[in-house]
Amino acid sequence: MTDADIEVRRARDRERYHRQTAERRAAGLCLTCGYRPPVPGRTRCEPCAAKKRPGDRARYHRQAAERVARGLCPKCGRRPPAPERSQCEPCLEKDAAAGRARDARLRAAGIPRRDPEKTREYERERNRRVAEARRAEGICTSCGKSPAAPGRVTCEPCLEQRRADDRARYAAGKAAGKPYGGADPETKRRAARARHKRRKKAWRAAGLCVNCGAPPEAAGATSCEPCKAKRRARGRRKYAERRAAGLCTKCGSPAFDGMTYCGPCALLHYAQQSPERRSETARRRYAERRARGECTDCGAPSQGASRCVACAERSYHRSQHFKGIPVWDPSWTVIEIATGRELGTFDSEADVALCLAFEKLARDQVEVLCDESPMSSYTAWT
């Protein structure tokens, strides 16, 4: 086959390709297969694009790598890239103009430029990869230019810039009356708790006061004397406030009348104390109150007696001293004579009469048993 025949065949194939492409474009079909409509904004349908995509991507990466190796723009391959950029100035401007036109077109149609969720996920993953790579190289994860500061992942200029931005943002939020300068309160509290735990652990390991970082006076102590005094004063103040309000001095819940603790805290406090310590404390308190002429139970004036009148009466009623047979409220139990069935127990004779009327029984058809204290016959009306 001569060169003329090859050229004729190529011209005929090009003419047929262009005619076929024009017909499919006019019919709104895929330019590759001609069977399905193309993807909106594209010339191919999705199956044809999926077939072409891996080859196009591999060819693009191979071509870009070759151009970068020669020091040329990976997009056009004709000019060197701009300083600190990967493409030359004309290609950068062309990409920017195309991006602006695309964004304007999508904005006019009411279509978002990208899927926001996919964009955020992609940016997070890309930033994570970049940060890991920079951390492995020992450079700043923010700018990627300077070495990281000792013990940090960013350099000193980036750290200072971040501190300045945080201070400015905090000042603006505080001026607007926002708590924590407009930051998330829960996040700030969580960070403060973590920071406090780290500082406290470091001070304890160094043998310093865990509250202020000063050397403690006693060897092996975890708090200095000023911090201990402050803690005691704060505890005494809280104790006095809760006692005056009638609350439990441990948890702040309502306490029993005149008591120091509520029920759960009293049981917990009693279980935590050793018997020897409880006995020693009780003996010391008894001796001090007796020496002052006070009630040994509540501390009120007792006129020389060991207990005041109220505490003595309460102690007598709580004791196991014999007080006679108690007097309880009487009750009546109704039993049907014919069947032996118990119809119920009632608190008054009127309830017994109502039971008989409801069951339609006469008085001689039932037996009424009265449960009454033997001491009630000796009790007179006053």
Any overview of this molecule?
The protein is mainly α and 382 residues long. Among the domains are: 17-69, no CATH class; 225-271, no CATH class; 273-320, no CATH class; 331-378. It has 11 helices and 3 strands, in the order H-H-H-H-H-H-H-H-H-H-E-E-H-E. It has helices at 3-27, 46-69, 89-108, 116-137, 156-175, 185-205, 225-244, 263-272, 275-292, 309-318, 349-359; strands at 331-336, 342-346, 366-371. A 3-stranded antiparallel β-sheet has the order 2-1-3, with helices on one face. A hairpin with a 5-residue loop joins strand 1 (331-336) and strand 2 (342-346).
Task: Report strand %.
Answer: under 5%
The number of distinct β-strands equals 3
- Silhouette: elongated
The Cα radius of gyration reads 46 Å
**First-last Cα distance:** 143 Å
Q: What string, H for helix and E for strand, traces the elements in order?
A: HHHHHHHHHHEEHE
Order of the strands making up the biggest sheet: 2-1-3
Instruction: Give the low-confidence spans.
Output: none
Biggest beta-sheet profile? 3 strands, antiparallel
Oligomer: single chain
Structure class: mainly alpha
Average pLDDT over all residues = 87
Continuous helix count: 11
Helix content: 40-55%
Briefly, what is this?
It contains eleven helices and three strands; from the N terminus they run ααααααααααββαβ.
List the helices and strands and how they pair.
Elements (H helix, E strand, L loop, with lengths): L2 H25 L18 H24 L19 H20 L7 H22 L18 H20 L9 H21 L19 H20 L18 H10 L2 H18 L16 H10 L12 E6 L5 E5 L2 H11 L6 E6 L11
